[in-house]
Amino acid sequence: MMHRRGGKRIRMDDPVPPEYETPMTPMTPMNDNSGGDANDSYNAYTPYQASQTPLHNPTPEHYSSESYSSPGTSQQQYQEQGNFDNQTQFEAPMTPAASNMRITRNTRARMRGGVVQQPKYKEIDTDYTPSSSSRGRGGGRGRGKRAHHSHSLEDEASLYYVIRNNRSSLTTIVDDWIEKYKSNRENALLMLMQFFINASGCKGRITSEMQLTMEHVAIIRKMTEEFDEESGEYPLIMTGQQWKKFRANFCEFVQILVRQCQYSIIYDQFLMDNVISLLTGLSDSQVRAFRHTATLAAMKLMTALVDVALTVSINLDNTQRQYEAERQKAREKRAADRLESLMAKRKELEENMDEIKNMLTYMFKSVFVHRYRDTLPEIRAICMAEIGVWMKKFHQNFLDDSYLKYIGWTLHDKVGEVRLKCLQALQPLYASEELKTKLELFTSKEILTDKDCEHVYELVYSSHRAVAQAAGEFLNERLFRPENEAVVDVKTRRGKKRLPNTPFIRDLVLFFIESELHEHGAYLVDSLIETNQMMKDWECMTDLLLEEAGPDEEALDNQKETSLIELMVCCIKQAATGEAPVGRGPTRKILSVKEIKQVHDDKQKLTEHFIQTLPLLLDKYRADPEKLANLLAIPQYFDLDIYTKSRQEINLDSLLSKIQAIVEKMHDNDVLDTAAKTLEHMCVEGHAIFTRCNVARSTLIDSIVNKYKEAIDEYRNLIEGDEEPDEDEIFNVVQSLKKVSIFYSCHNMNPWGIWDSLYKDIEDAKDPAKSLPSTAVKYCISACFFAILWGQNHLMEAVDSGSHGEDECRQLKERLHSFMGSMRHFVNSDTPSPPILREDAYNTICDLLVIFCNQLSTHTNPLMHQLVYEPDQAMQNMLNRFIQEYVFFEEEDDEHDEHSKIEELHKRRNFLAGYCKLIVYNMIPTKAAADVFKHYVKYYNDYGDIIKTTLGKARDINKTNCALTMQQSLNILYNEIVAEKGKVNRNSEEFTAIKELAKRFALSFGLDAVKNREAITALHRAGVLFAITPPDGIEQDPTGPPPNLPFLEILSEFTNKLLKLDKRVVLNFLDRRLQAGMPSSRGEDWQPLLLYRNSLLHGETDQVPVTSKRAYTRRKKDHLAEEEEADEPDEGSDHEFAGLPVNKVVITRGPRTNTFYENNDTVQMQTSPSAIVEDTATSPLQDLDSRFKALQTQSSRPRRNQEHVEHRELRRTSRNSGRYVEGQYMESDSE
Questions:
Q1: For residue 135, what pLDDT is reported?
Q2: Where is the composition biased (Low complexity) (predicted)?
């Protein structure tokens, strides 16, 4: 039992020590405050004084109760709880840095003699990054190289080289070193010191002369000056397998060294004195690499010494026992020489133990106490990890409040990794029954309040799965701990004994209700299902629902029953699938073999149970939609073969009849939807129960269709007779159509032949006099949509089986086109339609365009090619108008409550996603996104993620087209200002907003200017043309600026994305176009032109450099084809925007790859060289095109006569798909 001292108890709610607000600087010494008297101040430079430690006192003398007190306060005895609220305990141990700090070589010989005067050591507040004074700034490192790890000049015999490269086992390395130490200990010590220096990443070398003549402080200063690495990297923090292995070897080497030297060398007053002195000095260095490496070595050295101390302690106990046994013998049987040898051995072991304890005490005070609150989190984490090891192994010495307080303080660390090390240090101590009692001083005030527990309970709903499961384990300990008396003699009304988990499930339901997160039952289940077996106790759950409460228990109310059913279904789903809820864990987790077997076993057990109980549950709650919606989902997780294996056909028939009765009577959407999906799951061909289920399904659909026909016939007869249908008749039509729509989505109802009737209802909706209610028409649209999908699916299956269905294909095509025509009618803003129909028709069009896109033209059967449906320009414009009206509008703040606003936003986001999907999948041209991109900044909070993704996908399709779409977006916004204001004010908010959008567009191109070269050039050309070309119908003043000239200021946002070479080309193009109208004076109206020209001239001269006369070079044959291909424009490149009247060859393509300004599947190609020359000669873009191509050809090879030009070239090849790589352009580095 640990000696109880009178010091204060550690409390976790104590004020945090001040250093955690502002951590101590690396060089700040401080008082340990855990030992000695008030004047006993230790710092890193205090001589190593091996003071004696009493053998049998488990508490070191330095930590006695007489001297243990809180820093900065007088000693106080332990008081009751109430006294702790009014005092500050365990403040941060701080001692001002001594003005005359000295470093000494801490040998005991020196220590026992006089004090050697040493030079002062400068204190520095921040991590020091040294640089060589002789090098100046230097040239930096080449790519892929690490200057300080160039091993060409390394000593291959050094310990660092051998250990880093794993040249032999660590034990062999240590044994060899010990042999060298025995023959020449000075040289061996030098090797060891050099190892610690090199392991810090320092290339400096310690010579024999330095070792003999210089103190450690001077050696460390010398090494600091030679530490010339500027990157800040050193072995302990470097990445890669080699350095990971080195870190492990480094720690192991220190421990093996001490273990192999434990019987003699560590007590020779030379090795350990020098090593401890060196590591102490290095650990207090301002160089982070020295400090980190030395602290790790010192902590591992202490851990190794703790192991030695345990060995010595065991030997001492054995020797003491032998001595006492010998002394107990009778005088005549007692061996005097043996008693004498045992006494000598005991004395030697006691001295060794004292020596080790003194080493540990000194290193703790001179290294640990300073470094446990280092500015570097990794160093603090090392200290906490190792003190935990010491407490576990050598608890007699370390497991008391004078050491535990450091863990207590560091639990408040700002860095999570450091706090985690503290907890990991405490965990094994609490796990040990023997050690747990010694933590009383540390834990007595660590009692969690209910409020504290609630904070942990809430984490079961965290999206981070590991955190949630840890909180689940905490919940198990607090709320679901077994109590034997809880279920003793508790029985149901009919006498059935309640199962042991009954009270826990009741508590779980109550916890779920009180948490008020009723939509997140799956998250709660996932947090508990792997650690609490009650989550799969199906019998206990169903007993609570089916059995009536007995006299000694409380019955579940309606809310508790609903919550229990929801949790039970969540448990069933996760047990049967092994999948975590959406948003928790990986989206596609691959189950292990063990997990697959567990899922299979769980699925069998739950199927066997619910086959019998589910019909009873459905019968009991047949009138409660909320409960039925959950219960009806259970068969989706059954192992359906068990119905036949266990002869449960009667229960199957019962279940099917219950489902049919529920569908016929219920009108709740969730109930009907779940019932339809469950029937779909049960009616899978191949199962033994398929025939029974299919008959039941057909019977149910017959009933649904007949009710619809009856209701619609009655409704139409009333309309034709000019009568007004009453509420019941309208209700019957709407509800029957709802069931038809829902079941059509899961089951092919085409054989029932109701298309004509459904489509007639849609056509009638165009006439307000004949129209059904909007909700009913919406169900008709949904049913017809799925009818078309089932038709396509059936046609594909028929084609795959080898049969032909020309008639079926023709009928499907007619239905598709007529249905799309009706949907266009509803969406078109020219015809007034109810908003609910416009929205549903819009979604339907977007979905059908995706399903019947041009990818069908690649299908193996030609019949599918006929079903391709592509949107014409009118449809594209209609869809664009819809999103402008329904998505991009300013809503009134007080129009709806918060929940309604969220739902409306979600709906609008779906509208936008449907339109963007058509662009992303290249079903409509990229230019159709211009009206979407223009809202990028204005509606960033609501739709920014969708527009950004669309922008990225459009760039993947064709970079040039995407860039020109951005340009078109800016043009649209600019024209809107002109139309509204007449003249553009460059200081207005609207103009500033366009510049902000241009800046955001420019950022989206990234840093690779070469990759986006063609796109950026095309954007600038189009922008310049827009700026200098007057709008149609406006005559330009020949002496004045072009009307759109302010647009150049917007265009300048993209200038920094141009390569230097391209800036000159664009500038030349700009000057050529504006040469006739350049102003003689620099008026305000011409400022955008000057701004744009200056941005192009940034860092350049105003003169375009003269190019080499030689326009070609000899090339290797294998590059010829690539360079010829590089001269041809890409599909969809900026050539299609040049406005050139070129001849065309129409080439039929498969899926569209580029459709920016084309509405058909064609690609334009130039056919005649003469045509090219003729067209470009008269084109206003002649300069840009010709100069661009000339420069491509000119620079195909380095100019040998210009030595000052760096020989780096860029070449386009077929292998890099149009990207520029080394070999074509010179002087093309991006700025």
A1: 37
A2: 60-76
